What we know:
The protein has 105 residues and is α+β, with helices and mostly antiparallel strands. The protein has helices at residues 31-43, 48-71, and strands at 2-3, 16-28, 76-87, 93-104. A four-stranded mixed beta sheet has the order 1-3-4-2.
Amino acid sequence: MLLSTTPTIEGHPVREYKGVVTGETIIGANAIKDFMASLTDFFGGRSSSYEKVLIQAKDTALKEMMQRAEQMGANAIIGIDIDYETVGQSGSMLMVSTSGTAVVI
């Protein structure tokens, strides 16, 4: 499955538009990650534990979106948008939602 944030894929004209397709995931960060992130915040640097959570959530949402596109008969998704939001009490959970247009190229 080809994925693109652009409205077209060069050299591959869109033959059929299948419709809007989405993927969502909500993932929590546990107390240990919160503690390690607070140390990183205090001392500076990158929080690899939170970065891993972000990557995992993004990958999960994209996979879900690809599965839905395949069910629609698409072989590509164009115009992909990825959104990150915090949800839950005190923003303790991360929601990643992806959307795009499922197409046949």
